[in-house]
Amino acid sequence: MTTVTISRDFGSEGDLLARKIANNLGYHYVDKEIIGNLLEHYGFVEFDREYETLPGFWAKFNAQRDKRRDMMVDMLNRSLEAFAVHGNAVILGRSGFSVLGGYADVFHIRFQAPFHARVKRLMQEENLTHLEAATICEEGDRVRSEFIRNYYGISLDNVHAFDLTLNTDKVPFDLIAKISVDCIKAFNAKPKTEKPTTAMIEVDSVLTRAVNDLLNCKIEHSESKPILEMQH
Questions:
Q1: Which of 102, 130, 157, 198 is most buried, by the most CB atoms less than 10 A from its CB?
Q2: Cα–Cα distance measured from residue 165 to residue 17, given in angstroms and rounded to the nearest whole number
Q3: Which pLDDT tens digit goes with each residue over 85-117?
Q4: What are the domain boundaries of the chain?
């Protein structure tokens, strides 16, 4: 079954939409907390903190920190692949569209909204001044775009990276969720012949068990796939 990645502008309600889409499909909802828990399981307790403080961490170059940074990103990539291999997952953010962009059975959605609309929404939801909300939106956009550009060489504005892009300021929330679900269902029904699928990803057994435990699900939703047993 399909894995869905959702990318969103900061303040575009993408997180709420991702959860609703997952609920409507009966899919697992994989957000930064779940991904962070998996990375923490492998010893990368600082990922979320450092990710949110770009470019401070990512722009400081020294051999030791470079190595640690590269290890974290590699583990992030492996984690995203493992969730995709498990299947029936809606993955929110964390570069999912880039890491899983080459697989035929992954559907990529992007939610956008004009800057002024996102600032207004944040002001209302968080009781912020215009300056406070604008600053938060600008920083959120910058952190995400710099991480994607620095590590994957892709711009969030690359429309070719996404299968569906919707403006959350123009289209009502429930209609966006319905359109997304309908598109995903239609995508599921389409034969996947043009690219490799996530069934070809090799995931070691330890990582597979960790993902199953985090999702509280032992069912393998995707096609038959290779699982590498760890050597002792």
A1: 198
A2: 13
A3: 999 999 999 899 999 999 999 999 999 999 999
A4: 3-227
CA neighbours closer than 13 Å in the CB half-sphere of residue 162: 20
pLDDT digits (tens, 9 = 90+) for 185-226: 999 998 877 779 999 999 999 999 999 999 999 877 765 444
229 by Cβ neighbours in 10 Å (0-12 / 13-18 / 19+) ranks as exposed
Burial class (CB in 10 A: 0-12, 13-18, 19+), 19: middle
Q: Considering only CA atoms, which of 169, 198, 221, 179 is closest in space to residue 24?
A: 179
- Quote the pTM value: 0.87
Q: How far apart are CA 38 and CA 44, in angstroms?
A: 9
CA 185 to chain centre: 19
Measured in whole angstroms, how far is the alpha carbon of residue 163 from the centre of its chain?
14
- How far is the C-alpha of 13 from the C-alpha of 109, rounded, in Å? 13
Is residue 115 within 8 A of residue 135, CB to CB? The reply is no
